[in-house]
Write a structure and sequence with these properties.
Blueprint: E1 4-8, H1 12-24, E2 28-32, H2 35-45, E3 50-54, H3 62-70, E4 77-81, H4 86-95, E5 99-102, H5 107-121, E6 131-134, E7 137-140, E8 145-148, E9 151-154, H6 157-167, E10 173-175, H7 176-183, H8 191-205, E11 215-218, E12 222-225
Parallel strand pairs: 1-2, 1-3, 3-4, 4-5
Antiparallel strand pairs: 6-7, 7-8, 8-9, 10-12, 11-12
């Protein structure tokens, strides 16, 4: 399956160039020309592998769109900016973005930066709208719900984001420091807070929270998401 990229920019000439460049590099590309259109695409198709988002768009800015998305998932973002606005770029890199590209840009440079981000973050394959963990559990990240034994269970934004970070490395232990940094990039959060969220997730998802089937603790190291997808 080709990695899927979402490009959000109100300038159609920009999205045309981005689509053509990334398609030639082997990526599946979806395009939106507003934040509202982008959110509709996410609801319809699920989370992509990475998003390229213009900072300055009418109505809802790119930064506002990123903040809305990052409440419930850890979607990697490369920002497009027409002006090298240093304070804005620094804040974005600290809080919501993996990288940024200044317009006008060379398509080959944008492709290289996409490849670099995906390489650095590891497995970022898109799962489509639903991630099927096994026969009894599936997760809809955008709608922030899980289906467990055909029961629909509402997840909090933070619970959804925890699952999303773990699902990108399913079957592998994700270190505590990495989890804390990806889930709460700005706040200073300690392991006890994460432990509370994991406890609540186990109560919602596990057949027996005391004998986990999905959410495993590697003491002093981190957490691991298991299931048939991990095998």
């Amino acid at each position: 399956m080709r990695a899927e990229i979402l490009c959000v920019d109100d300038q159609r000439d920009i999205t045309t160039v981005v689509r053509a460049s990334l398609d030639a590099a082997g990526y599946e590309v979806r395009v939106a020309h507003s934040a509202a259109e982008a959110l509709t695409l996410l609801e319809r198709h699920g989370l992509p592998s990475l998003a390229i988002i213009d900072i300055r768009m009418p109505e809802t800015t790119g930064l506002e769109l990123c903040s809305a998305i990052h409440r419930f998932c850890d979607l990697p973002v490369i920002l497009l900016t027409a002006v090298d606005d240093e304070p804005t770029v620094v804040q974005a890199l600290n809080e919501i973005a993996e990288d940024y590209v200044i317009k006008p840009f060379r398509p080959a440079v944008l492709v290289a930066r996409v490849q670099r981000v995906l390489r650095r973050l590891g497995n970022t394959e898109s799962h489509g709208r639903l991630l099927q963990i096994d026969e009894r559990l599936q997760v809809d990240f955008v709608r922030q719900v899980a289906e467990v034994d055909d029961r629909r269970i509402t997840l909090t934004p933070t619970e959804t984001k925890v699952l999303h970070v773990l699902s990108r490395r399913i079957g592998k232990t994700v270190r505590l420091e990495f989890l804390l940094r990806r889930i709460w990039p700005v706040e200073e959060i300690f392991e006890d807070t994460l432990r509370v969220h994991m406890h609540r997730l186990r109560k919602k998802l596990e057949p027996d929270p005391d004998q986990p089937r999905y959410l495993f603790t590697e003491r002093g190291v981190g957490y691991r998401l298991g299931g048939e997808q991990a095998s």
